[in-house]
Amino acid sequence: MAKTSVYKFGGASVKDGSAVRNLAEILRNRLRKNMVIVVSAMGKTTNALESILAKKLSGEDFSLNCTILKEFHQDICQELFPAGHPVFAHLDNLFLQLNNDLEKKLSRDNYDEFYDRIVSYGEVISSRIVAEYLCYQELIILWQDAREVIHTDSDFRFAKIDWEKTRKSCQSSWKPLLANFPILTQGFIGSDPKGRTTTLGREGSDFTAAILATSLDAASVTIWKDVPGVLNADPKLFPNTRKFDELGYREAAEMTYFGASVIHPKTIKPLANAGIPLFVKSFLDPEAPGTKIHEHASVHHVPTIVLKKDQILVSFKVTDFTFIEEKHIHSVYEKLQSLKLRVNMLQLSAISISIVIDTQLFKLDQLISKLRDEFEIRYNEGLELLTILHQQEEEIPSLLEGYEVLLEQASRNTFQVVRRKN
Ligand SMILES: Nc1ncnc2c1ncn2[C@@H]1O[C@H](COP(=O)(O)OP(=O)(O)O)[C@@H](O)[C@H]1O
Ligand SMILES: N[C@@H](CC(=O)OP(=O)(O)O)C(=O)O
Predict the structure, then answer these.
(1) Burial state string for 381-419 with b = 16 or more CB within 10 A and e = fewer than 16
(2) Domain Aspartate/glutamate/uridylate kinase spans what residues (predicted)?
């Protein structure tokens, strides 16, 4: 039997009617049985659902947001389907369910579980529309709910995969189906042991593609993006970028670790372990080769820039005239871990620990309240973390022009700076 291949289409590739049409054209000559297509929510739907949740939490009226979101999807359907097509009833139904779920009680205590339930609608709605459109185009595909095979723990918003159970479900439920049909499913979502919806972390659909690929022993994964492949910087932020024709798993993982948002950071590891190549290709130029990420890529030393926005620099200063010791670091890391906060950069001085973290709702307040008895805490918000791999000294000043530097760190291969616009 031919090996499975996995395609992933993110939000940008299904952001409007013509994007969905383009997706169908990409699949027209490529779709075959044994293929899994993973789709994300359409455009910025997840952000829109997050805004609805924020309004609900603060007791504001969010009905207009829901109407706008429904109209956004309805407009896409009107562009793709004739009046009276069953997709319109599906859409009505899903928005009815979403509104019912939004009626339920939300507090800071059940926020994460509630969040997962609500934001999952983005992927469910998108996958319904895309599946209906493909079938309407006679590209026959089976719609499957990812929550039936992607098993996780109950760590809502950052759920961890139960790899064994996921593999079993993929092999027993989906493998037989794939022998006859391609499957279309959702990225980003899974279910916990009680069957409750979980999510894998923002932008987690790339990771879903990797989970399904390893669980189905796939031959390859292709993620379709609005860029020609993996470049040496985000082309939306930096001019004169260069595309990598190939990258080693390790290099790609390093780029994503520092924040290159083109691939979700958890995607590479399972693929590397299983030796499954990852192709990053452009949905705007599907015939172009893109970037191949695999084991035997030749090593390069091209300077590579990664920019992470919305960063907070927090400094913890000891107040009792002692110096920083292991116990201080341990204490800070323990609290960070309990809040599921990842450190993007760390710097130690004799009397302080400085960390850089992502901006996340409520988290800074919680961190400060947990540590304010031990340390004098200062923080700066609205910062950017700039990482340059294989830096060339002469190019650094131009990247810092017009910025104030708050923290800087360099090793032989990596230069990092926390900066703020002047
Ligand atoms: N090194 C990089 N190479 C290519 N694209 C990058 C890089 N770093 C960041 N990006 C950004 O990643 C975007 C594609 O990823 P993303 O928006 O998450 O896709 P999707 O949500 O459609 O899956 C590009 O539009 C680009 O702005
Ligand atoms: N829709 C989710 C999951 C995702 O991965 O989306 P995208 O493939 O558009 O990055 C998010 O926005 O976080």
Answers:
(1) eebbbbbbbebeeeebeebeeebeebbeeeeeebbbbbb
(2) 4-282
Q: Is the ipTM of this complex over 0.95?
A: yes
Reported as a single tens digit per residue, the pLDDT across 363-422 is 899 999 999 999 999 999 999 999 999 988 888 998 999 999 999 999 988 999 999 999
Ligand 1 pocket residue status of 231, Cβ below 6 Å: yes
Query: Ligand 1 centroid vs 227 CA: distance in angstroms?
Result: 7
Q: How far is Cα 341 from Cα 337, in angstroms, rounded to an integer?
A: 6
Domain ranges of the chain: 5-225, 304-421
Residue 1 banded pLDDT, cuts 50, 70, 90: low
Q: Map residue 143 onto helix, strand or coil.
A: strand
State the architecture of 5-225 in CATH terms. Answer: 3-Layer(aba) Sandwich (3.40)
For ligand 2, is residue 265 a contact (CB within 6 Å)? no
What separation in Å is there between the alpha carbon of 41 and the centre of ligand 2? 6
What is the CB neighbour count within 10 angstroms for residue 103? 8
Number of the ligand closest to the Cα of 119 = 2
pTM: 0.94
Cβ 277 vs Cβ 214: under 8 Å:
no
* Token duo for residue 376: 């004098």
CATH superfamily for 304-421 is: VC0802-like (3.30.2130.10)
- Residue 222: helix, strand or coil by DSSP? strand
Nearest to 91 by CA among 115, 135, 114, 124: 124
Distance from the alpha carbon of residue 234 to the mean position of ligand 1, in angstroms: 7
Distance 201 CA to ligand 1 centre (A): 16
* Residues 6+ away with beta carbon under 8 Å from 421: 402, 403, 404
- Assess whether the C-beta atom of 202 lies below 6 angstroms from ligand 2: yes
- Closest atom, ligand 1, to C-alpha of 232: 1
What is the Å distance from ligand 2's center to 341 Cα?
Answer: 20
Distance CA 249, CA 230 (A): 12
